[in-house]
Amino acid sequence: MSDLTKLTLAAARDALRKKEVTSTELTGAYLKEMEAATPLNAYVTVTADKAMEMAKASDEKLAKGEGGDLEGVPLGIKDLFCTKDVLTTACSHILDGFIPPYESTVTANLWRDGAVMLGKLNNDEFAMGSSNETSFYGPVVNPWRRKGSDAKLVPGGSSGGSSAAVAARLCAAATATDTGGSIRQPAAFTGTVGLKPTYGRCSRWGIVAFASSLDQAGPITRDVRDAAIMLKSMAGHDEKDTTSVDRPVPDYEAALGQSIKGLSVGIPKEYRVEGMPKEIDDLWTRGIEWLKAAGANVKEVSLPHTKYALPTYYIVAPAECSSNLARYDGVRYGLRVDGKDITEMYENTRAEGFGAEVKRRVLMGTYVLSAGYYDAYYLKAQKVRTLIARDFAEAFSEADVLLTPTAPSAAFGLGEKTDDPLSMYLNDVFTVTVNLAGLPGISVPAGLSSEGLPLGLQLIGRTFDEETLLRAAFAIEEAAGFTAEAEAWWRA
Amino acid sequence: MAETMVSDFERTMKVREARKEDLIQGQTGDWEIILGLEVHAQVSSNAKLFSASSTKFGAEQNTQVSFVDAAMPGMLPVINRFCVEQAVRTGLGLKAKINLRSVFDRKNYFYPDLPQGYQISQFKHPVVGEGEVILDMPDGRVVHVGIERLHLEQDAGKSLHDQHPAMSFVDLNRSGVALMEIVSKPDMRSADEAKAYVTKLRTILRYLGTCDGNMEEGSLRADVNVSVRKVGEKLGTRCEIKNVNSIRFIGQAIEHEARRQIEILEEGGKIDQETRLFDPKTGETRSMRSKEEAHDYRYFPDPDLLPLEFTQDWVDEIAASLPELPDDKKARLISEYGLSPYDATVLIGEGARADYFEAVAKGRDAKLAANWVTGELFGALNREGHSIEDTPVSSKQLGELIDLISDGTISGRIAKQVFDSMYKTGRDPAKIVEEEGLQQVTDFGAIEAAIDAVIAANPDKVEQTKVKPQLAGWFVGQVMKSTSGKANPSVVNEILAKKLGLSSDD
């Protein structure tokens, strides 16, 4: 079989089961692609030996007609997931040399189902960023380029390694995490599918925390079916995470292809923001038409507190991160930069260990939680958060899913926004609301910009109704017929 | 939890005034001490508050540390339901309001023995609200001390500064162990009341089995808030003395701190609100950090944990399983056994002591039992440094001894001798009496002969006794002496009275 890495996860899974290909062959093919793709900087750690070992073990099972749902399928893992005996740094200098003696629940679920680990994927430091430029290990480069340009573009963030690797076929699928859009925005920037499940659907145990009340793991995949397959393995209740929810994990793949006739699709009017590029607006309109054509009822809905979402997010997320990152103090693991006393050791370690964006957020978070500011910022933000969730609850009383653009633009150039944190933060304008309300959201590639870059549409669902979300996403995918691929310019 | 104390302190200014005898005399007049305590009580539980690690005391360093306790990346806390049950049980024992919904917050500060960089505690919504502890003071006074709140929180690890010349080490065995912080209202007015409060609180916790109260092992520690004021004037600025780990030290720390504050105020100075440490070596308190250096803990609800919620049914179930509490036991001992409040108070100090008493008193003269238990037995235990659990004299044996007194086999005086022997050897009283020939002589003939001998030898005393009947006691002594104390004293009295021509009814 040629072009093994072109197979979707579903196709690879089926080919493995039918013994048309072995996991060793498939894994070997990916490792070769990864080697050729170093200019993309998608992987920060390649676990080639481990991958081949796991592939061999899968092949033995497959030969006997055994194996799990993902038996032999090679995956990339965002470096935010702790992987036992494999370097895990969250792409921060402060976690230098940290090799966890434990495996995150989500990755453990994937290995339980037979998946093979290719390596750890680059991301923004501690998942703080929208362009993957804050990684200690350097930026990831988007496999896509503007028509007729060889300017390097960002793959989105924070899961930029995941989105780039999936788009460049450096893994069959990847794990990712989403705190304010970190799965969906990079998916939109790379022509891939990114699914952020309902808060509590996947366990957070063993994932390096950024903002605990917003973080959620999910997949970035080639298509909607692959996302459904990945989610089934990743999801599930975990007693080690109090915020994970104990309810059965449905067979998401079975929801695909079911008719969306009569499905009620809400179009939130507040998302038609000022200054939105026309091609994004047009894409949105096209999406509406596709769903209508497939039999859905489309109606306008209102989410009146949308304009407060971004400021709310940039209070809540930094507040939680300022506390979550306090444990990186040089005492027990990771980087330590000595000083004349304990205070100086803390200061030296954290000054050298954290990058500028992480420091900015720790400072913002510390500020909003400080005596005298707590009520005005943090408490107020929590109240607004409740209002945002209420907006959605009301919208979902008349709509089954909501349709919006994923991001306000296509992928931008490397370094274009690094000096302007505010314009960087604006990238999350359509995605943060979903995290604040704990809802599931998915980005589906829906077209190309005038410059030939992928654009995504976002669907937002009711809590724990990923089935309807995936069903609608599948309909968009079918209607969009998005087949464009990035040219493999990175190969020497 | 100094923050909440401040406002409560200020709010409760109408609090009771100290008694005259509790005032401290200064150069410029009498001063009143206002005291509030924050007691940290380690929850009796095999596992920690948010992890399954063992809490056993004295284990080798860093051997009882889970990934959660060490705050490894991606680790999450999971509440230990038993610790919550213990907190609720304690709240019920303190007659306090139980909050069916409470919230865990993060208290953020950097310290090497605090791996997370924050302590998980309860700030705005504690699991237990207002309650009360009743103090029985030795002079018979009853003092009511309000409980402001009780909340659950994690203990920190321990920094070790004596392991290496240039470095400090950290032992995380204690990191994450469950503590109950029990905050009193500023209702105490003397070191004695504060000591009585901690003592009583410890008794209640031990009855409930929710904290072993072992202060040497750090299971119970107190932060003492001290302020002074001229009688009738407005409340003074308080200082908090951190982590005092014995009841005696609590008393010393308060005495010293109150005098220190009075001295400053009388010299025209002012008290700086600050945190202080008590040094048992010098008996003094010294400044640890000032208000300006105080941490801004940036409390906020821990997003890793859902609010702590449980049902009234569950609380009722726990309430139904509560043991008899010290105050109830005291009331029962008084009504059921006719004990004095003093004896009852002494007995209920430890549940095992009261149990011992009840075993001895069952079917016997309760007053006599109380005297023997609180007098001879407790005296001996204190002298020998034994606890009631390792008493060499069982309640059964002490009961048998009392039976020997009651049935006239031995006199009370001989009984003390027998008790000493029992305490030393653990032998049964009947055996000691028999083997050592200590039975009381009630044989009229033998006693009469002994009396006759004494009378015959002391005719002058006989004459004097006719004028001064009190001298009869001298004859009793002589007779007891000649019978090695075994003569039945009532028989001696009776015969002697006749022989000396005194009425036996006198």
How many helices of chain B does DSSP assign?
16
Helix proportion of chain A: 25-40%
- Quaternary structure: heterodimer
If helices are DSSP runs of H or I spanning 4 or more residues, what is the number of helices of chain A? 15
- CATH homologous superfamily classification of the domain at 4-245 and 404-480 in chain A: Amidase signature (AS) domain
Q: What's the CATH topology name of the domain at 4-245 and 404-480 in chain A?
A: Amidase signature (AS) enzymes
Mean pLDDT of chain B equals 91
Query: Taking Cα atoms only, what radius of gyration of chain B do you get, to the nearest Å?
Result: 30 Å
| Rounded mean pLDDT score of chain A | 97
Strand content of chain A: 5-15%
| Low-pLDDT stretches of chain A | none
Write a compact overview of the structure shown.
Chain A has 492 residues and is of the alpha/beta class.
Write the layout of secondary structure elements.
The complex is a heterodimer of chains A (492) and B (506).
Chain A lengths: L8 H9 L5 H14 L6 E4 L1 H16 L10 E5 L26 H8 L3 E6 L38 H8 L5 E6 L5 H7 L2 E4 L19 E6 L2 H11 L29 E5 L9 H16 L3 E5 L7 H16 L17 H12 L2 H14 L5 H21 L5 E5 L15 H5 L6 H6 L3 E8 L5 E8 L4 H15 L12
Parallel strand pairs in A: 2-3, 2-4, 7-8, 7-9
Antiparallel strand pairs in A: 1-3, 4-6, 5-6, 5-10, 9-11, 10-11
Chain B lengths: L1 H10 L12 E2 L4 E13 L38 H13 L7 E2 L2 E4 L9 E4 L9 E6 L5 E13 L3 E3 L8 E3 L6 E7 L6 H18 L11 E11 L8 E6 L2 H20 L7 E6 L4 E7 L9 E2 L6 E2 L2 H9 L5 H12 L3 H8 L2 H11 L4 H19 L10 H12 L5 H14 L3 H7 L8 H14 L1 H9 L4 H11 L6 H11 L7
Parallel strand pairs in B: 12-13
Antiparallel strand pairs in B: 1-2, 2-10, 2-11, 3-16, 4-5, 4-15, 6-7, 7-10, 8-9, 11-12, 13-14
Helix pairs in contact in B: 3-4, 6-7, 8-9, 8-10, 10-11, 13-15, 13-16, 15-16
